[in-house]
Amino acid sequence: MSKQTLSVEIAPDMLQIKSIRYYLNKWHPDFVSISNLSRFSFDSIMQCANYVKKEINIPVIIHITGINRDRNEIDRLLTHVHNNNIHNLLLLRGDNHGHIKNDFPYASELVKYVKSKNDEFKIMGACYPEVHPEAQSLVEDIQHLKTKVNAGCNQLISQMFFDNQKYYQFIDETKKQNINVPILAGIMPVTEMKTVNWLKKIKMNIPQFIQNNNDLKQAGINFTIEQINDLYKNNVDGIHLYTMNNWSATDEIIKNIKRSELNE
Ligand SMILES: NC(=O)C1=CN([C@@H]2O[C@H](COP(=O)(O)OP(=O)(O)OC[C@H]3O[C@@H](n4cnc5c(N)ncnc54)[C@H](O)[C@@H]3O)[C@@H](O)[C@H]2O)C=CC1
Ligand SMILES: Nc1nc(=O)c2c([nH]1)NC[C@@H]1CN(c3ccc(C(=O)N[C@@H](CCC(=O)O)C(=O)O)cc3)CN21
Asked: Which reaction does it catalyse (predicted)?
């Protein structure tokens, strides 16, 4: 028996290093993933990753996107990451910010390339319970997911979603297609209007409770606690929280969620 996991995603803002240290020590998640938002340099990602790994003693995963890089750039990054003893990577296609290169149009090609360069990397990929906005259907999206897993993903982290029933349908469909790697449910607490606007920008469904809510922070925290507890009760492999460095909201959520042993 193993316990359901809890992992968190943070932005590598070194100005917040005291909060990073305090809350990660308090929560002690199974691992921390460090997002590669365009406003942070790769150096700050590496600095944050090294700090979490060496000073706080929690495994780290860093994100690498392929859409904006060619093979030479990926080679340089992999050398750098390897020299820093980081072997866990979330390989993504990435958002289109207008600086597109042609070597890695899909995450699966990046996974294949990285595996061919160094088989030691432990690779995670993304998946979409509410279906990727560019995919024609759940079935088509899951076929592409299978290609990506076969290329060498050890684990998947889902895009955020707000309807657990869609997540359970998605998990059923992955099982039918023989996708057998662990899948972590990616959860984003929506406690601020700027997050709502960001979700609209990337064409995500907006959860119902947002409509006309005059205390979005507390409503968002409560919604997330209920969502996570329902997922844990329904035997998800793990929860991956997109914290966006909202420390106090995440802290209240983590205090109120209950994990259990997994039946294997
Ligand atoms: N934790 C994180 O930072 C996460 C980030 N994301 C973001 O999601 C976006 C997409 O990234 P990925 O999931 O890595 O992309 P992906 O390359 O796996 O898939 C993107 C789209 O392309 C389609 N596709 C894949 N292979 C195909 C093929 N061979 N032919 C035709 N269509 C194909 C997929 O069905 C999907 O609609 C990025 O913006 C990424 O940054 C998503 C989830 C988590
Ligand atoms: N399409 C896509 N792109 C991503 O970068 C992405 C996903 N999906 N899904 C999962 C996580 C969530 N990510 C996020 C999302 C927002 C912030 C964030 O800090 N947002 C700003 C507001 C948005 C803005 O103004 O740019 C914030 O201060 O909350 C951080 C990480 C990164 N990841």
From this structure: (6S)-5-methyl-5,6,7,8-tetrahydrofolate + NAD(+) = (6R)-5,10-methylene-5,6,7,8-tetrahydrofolate + NADH + H(+)
In the chain, where the domains are located = 2-262
CA of residue 216 to ligand 1 center, whole Å: 30
Name the residue of 92, 124, 141, 157 to mutate for ligand 1: max ligand atoms within 8 A of Cβ: 92
pLDDT digits (tens, 9 = 90+) for 125-139: 999 999 887 888 899
Helices 42-54/71-83 angle, 10° precision: 30
- Characterise 94 by phi-psi region: left (phi > 0), alpha (psi -120 to 50), beta (else): left
Q: What is the pTM of this model?
A: 0.95
Contacts of 181 (CB under 8 A, 6+ apart): 149, 153, 154, 155, 156
Question: What count of other Cβ atoms lies within 10 Å of the Cβ of residue 113?
Answer: 19
Distance 79 CA to ligand 2 centre (A): 27
ipTM of this complex prediction, to 2 decimal places: 0.93
CA-nearest residue, atom 30 of ligand 2: 244
Cβ neighbours, 10 Å, residue 214: 6
Q: Report, at the CATH architecture level, how domain 2-262 is classified.
A: Alpha-Beta Barrel (3.20)
